[in-house]
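[09:14] KT: can someone run the structure on this one? pasting the chain below
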Amino acid sequence: MSAVGVLVMSYGTPDSLEGVEAYYTHIRRGHPPTREQLEDLTSRYEAIVGGVFPLRENTNRQVEALQRTLDELAGEGRYRCYQGLKHAAPFIEDGVAAMAADGVKAAVAIVLTPQFSAMSVGGYLKRAREEAERHGILLAEVESYHLHPELISALEKRVKGGLEKLGADRDGALVLFSAHSLPARIVEMNDPYPEQLLETSRAIAEAAGVDRWQFTWQSAGQTGQPWLGPDILDTLESLSREGTKAVLVAPVGFVSDHLEVLYDLDLEAKKRAAELGIHLERIDMLNDDGEYMNALADTIVKAVD
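[09:31] RB: done, structure tokens below
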């Protein structure tokens, strides 16, 4: 019996500073960024990577760890993982084509983001579905796994560990769950994304015994249209006015160390918090955490069944 293909999808990141322009051009649907836009994005990458570029390796490690977990769970050779990225090679279509070249007849598509939105995960799945149809591959699709017990357990441990980082300031600290903002029009579409993020946050808070928490958005695009808010920088200002002195950020919409975490939170949000007199720490990201890999593997196996 041929292996079941597993298309592991994520947003993608350039594999070097030299690749930032091509990456940004792809995000902008083939329109090259202005010189100022390119300089801004490149400077953000330079600020977090300092000449080394580990971001792509995070995704590679996740896919390798998922392959090992599936081998342990279902036996070697039952599943075969392929990468498909939205904005960088190997693109989603490349991943499906690689499956077809290997003779894969049935596959599962999963995005590393746990919560579903038609605008994000839905777009990945559509591309995967269309390419799978072209190659005659039967494709099962995972829309979300935002309440998987092992995902919640992994994040609960990180919240508890993150509160320890606050030291003496942990008493009275607020846990601020966050995720990537999307255009506000998704609310009119009854998109499940905001509610699924709240469900994830609520489950983690309950598991970790956290009473004081709220949700905020981050990393909104600059498209001239309204995006979901409030943004984390505005939320920090509100918290400062309310007298909050310590915040633990838990970016539950993200699963690895990348630009939106290492720059938007660790540099930008931390700087703003310091200016406001707030001690801000962040939870460790999931990356290739064993419980997270178990959650993915279990979800994949159930999708096939």
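[09:33] KT: thanks! The chain has a mean pLDDT of 96.
[09:34] RB: yep, looked fine to me
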